[in-house]
Amino acid sequence: MSQQAAFSSIDHVSLESHPFMKRYVFIEIIKYHHAIDMILSLHYSSHTSLITAHALFERVAPLIQKRTKISALQSVLMVDPNCYKLVSPTNVTDYSPCYVALFDPINQFNQSLESRKLRFISSINNWITTHQEIGYLKIPSITQIIEKHSANTSKSSSPSKVLKPRLTLKNDSSKFQFKSRDEKTQSSKSNGLSLLERIKLKEQQSKQQKQQETPEAQREDYLQGKLESIYNIIYQINGEQNKPTSFTLTGLTQIVKDSLHYPTHEEDIQECLELLAKRLNHAIIITTRGGLSVVKVMKLDREGDLESLKSNKTVHAFYTACK
């Protein structure tokens, strides 16, 4: 099967549905995984030196025919943290040089490419079914991934310690403590629930409230989480002069996509731009003539605009709750 056919077949894999995120989001992650596997297979079959994440994605981009960033690797490791091993030779920060290594010997890795692809699709489906309540990808930082991999390595390489049980006196110190009237009042307010139980109860109530929202409201909540980041990109593009500027909708969409730190599909970005135009109709205007959509950015007031976006969210939540 040719490389192009292999990637085209991914478009037709069977995936679970997610209430907030669309299918193409997960298809892209599967393609990232497949492309990274192919490049790592080629590299480590003929090299013993580690490959940097930057060099890896320079070679991945032609395979999937789009620009890629390290956030693509982060999204793959979000689904399956044991796909690849990230290492850094210096003190770990998000700006440290990052290398991508394999957990398995290269011969074993090469023999398991097809099974790895199937196993990753299974992991994607598992992630979808266990994260139905969230509307975004919870991508771990590079620092978190490297520290986790380093911790796993040190645990596996060091002998486990056998801890002897420690004898403790059984007298409960609470018997000798005076409980004030305020403490008793606070205890009655919490209905006798522990802090952990109250947190779980609050999460359950929040989940029930989300389930009562219409699909349209859920979709808008999902887009709401991206509005500030996209607004900030537009604000930076507009520059210090902050004068009215015009962009084609497709052109601005591509600029925003290249500037975001996490993978976002063009359709989501365009919906966010339309939502910004709806919420900030004095500052961002979208017009369509002859099939061409143009975004006109007027003079922006960042502090006031962001406050307006937050207040709009509050009004939206209020009306949703009243339905």
From TrEMBL:
Domain of life the protein comes from = Eukaryota
Where in this chain does the record put each DNA replication factor Cdt1 C-terminal domain?
Answer: 194-288
Where are the bilayer-spanning segments? none
Q: Is-annotated flag, keyword Cell cycle?
A: yes
Q: Which UniProt keywords apply?
A: Cell cycle
Q: Which InterPro entries match?
A: Cdt1_C, Cdt1_C_WH_dom_sf
Which family is this protein grouped under? Belongs to the Cdt1 family.
Protein name listed in UniProt: DNA replication factor Cdt1 C-terminal domain-containing protein
